[in-house]
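input
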Amino acid sequence: MDPFNFADALLAILAQRLAKTLCSKCKEAYEPAENELEVLAAEYVDNTEGNATLILERWREHSANNKLILYKAKGCKYCNHTGYRGRLGLYELMTVTPSIRRMIQKRALVSEITQGALANGMNTLKQDGIHKVIQGLTDIAQVRAVCA
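output
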């Protein structure tokens, strides 16, 4: 297909995955160790130009008492002792901005287009998943499983 016509017609690209949701009846809160948070922040900025230290500081600023609370699966009768009940979507939406459109027309590499989209505010699937981990909706094991 002609890249000029393709880029002109393209509005957005959406990727989605389903991850298991932590059971609301038995999920167990815990305060993660500092190295666990550092690994989570490093995964968040992986393949981007983001800074893991700044991301970790931002997460702490938006948490109660600067302490992040995460949740893990436990298991109960309600979830058939799995710790999970239901699914939630993880999403990555790249909207085609004029700069992205020009890159497509010039047949830029996928990595260049991705970096341009990230610079314009796109979140990756894994980043969306990590947001949902911090919200207590799922755990990082589920995000890693579906975003591998």
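quick obs: The beta strands are 12-22, 28-30, 70-72, 84-95.
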